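Ticket 4471: requesting a sanity check on a complex prediction with adenosine-5'-triphosphate. Repro inputs:
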Amino acid sequence: MNEIVWKWVVRNTRDYGKADPKAVVGKVIGEWPEAREDLPRTMQLITAAVETAAKLSKEQLDKELSAFVFEQRKEKARHIELQGAQQGNVVTRFAPEPNAYMHIGHAKSAFLSYEGAHGYGGKCLLRFDDTNPEKESAEFVEAIREGLEWLGIEFDGEGYASDKMPIYYSYAEQLIEQGDAYVCKCQKEEMSANRSRKKGCECRNRPKSENKELWLEMVAKKMDEGAATLRLKGDLHSQNTVMRDPTLARILLAPHYRHGTKYAVWPTYDFQCAIADSVEGVTHVLRSKEYELRDELFYTILDRLRMRTPRVYDFSRLEIKGTVLSKRLIKPLIDQKKVSGWDDPRLPTLFGLRRRGILPQAIKEFVLSFGLSKVESEPSWEALLVENKKILDPIAERYFFVKDPVKLVVAKPTNEVASVPKHPSVKMGDREIATGSDFWIAKTDADALKDGETFRLKGLYNVKITAKEDGLVCGEFANKALIQGSKKIQWVPAIDKWFVPCEIIVPGDLIVNEKFNPNSLETDKGYCEKACTYLEEGIVIQFERYGFVRLDDAKKMAFIYSC
Ligand code: ATP
Ligand code: MG
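Returned structure tokens:
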């Protein structure tokens, strides 16, 4: 324990001049969770170490540091078993299509791929899957990058599928020359009717040389969109409909966000992905289960081209009760302005979760807990929120908030300035709160108080109720003694400038009975203490006996309920 404390204190001192015990405690607990059990002692050790480290020179600090190994956090043992994996030689990839912002389902895919490779000392690549010019944009590329950075995933390589166009073209030509692919001029409807009837069309029998000519015409932009496609000569009788002469490339004239109008023929996902995975040295492809039927095509394409073949794993798609985890379903909510944008706190997008004060580490724990299992489950948000609370508990400051305030008037008050600790067990300092005879307490607390009852204004003193009227509670100062097990109530002083009106946005289920829930956003209103006006926007704190909240807008004193 001492060593872990020392290690993080030294590092924090080196990075910031003097270490901040609050920043260190999170790291220590992360690496050694037992440190949470006796937090006061942990804090004592940290504070002492901070003082010692402050006396060291930069050289001495560097020397101390060189003795330590820094893993971000001691992870739960969660090895992801990959068949045929050789230590040091595993390559995986995360391949998002930049046609939307990331959601937590993508985070599952990204973390599994990352951890899958790194568990074997391998590499994980990021590849923007951008070979559909119609839907993709640089805005989405940037948003995905920002999301991944926020998650803390550092890839070992990065690229764009669209930068490999000449490679797809050359393999397409190889397939044509081998007689494994042909140019089809049938219309979409005809094609799909033939496929379901297991019937080939005339184009299938076109000589290779003609196919080659037509292909070159396609590539040279001499054909209109929809005029022709390149299809694999598959198996028209296969039970797997994917294998019935699937499309490998098609004409799309929309300008590409990266390559403009340079290319008119674009590979389909199946063709592009197989080639890119093979040439980039990917050994294990980890993707969600809806692609399962496409695995056979993936292997067939590479087999016909006699290319190196990665192993494909299909894991279950993440679904969460009360929300939608698919871009296709999230996008319309944004377009129709049912939610405020990609970062609406009701959304399961990374930016929505971030605004809600959900921490990347909680997302990681949550999504990795499902592993590579194919079992479909529909967990609720609860498991994620529990993870989040665990991480926030030792690091979030505590403040008072009273919802729907009711006035409490105390006779014979002490008029003192109360010093209330910002955390019950971790040393984070105190906040000062002036007091007089008038207080605000939450309506639910006021309602529950009985005439004659004694309760404690938390951190201050005990009050005996002397009268209750509608909207007003009267009491008198009883004593200061802390009585074990007595009722404790949060409060703010009803003194000008010592209470601050604030609101808390409470996100609820986005989807109820498979439809958008128009009541998915509620707002709690009340007063918080003055110390909250010094908080930095974006911070997550705990309103005692209310929950963790993130300060979303410091000007408006608007918080978002987290967990
Ligand atoms: P959506 O279905 O949300 O439109 P997508 O599959 O089209 O998403 P991509 O950008 O192509 O989105 O996905 C990148 C990776 O994320 C893929 O490997 C895909 O399997 C995975 N993925 C997408 N949604 C989920 C999910 N809900 N759970 C797990 N993995 C997912
Ligand atoms: Mg996709």
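Notes from triage: The pocket of magnesium ion (ligand 2) is lined by residues 97 (CB under 6 Å). Leaving this open until the requester confirms.
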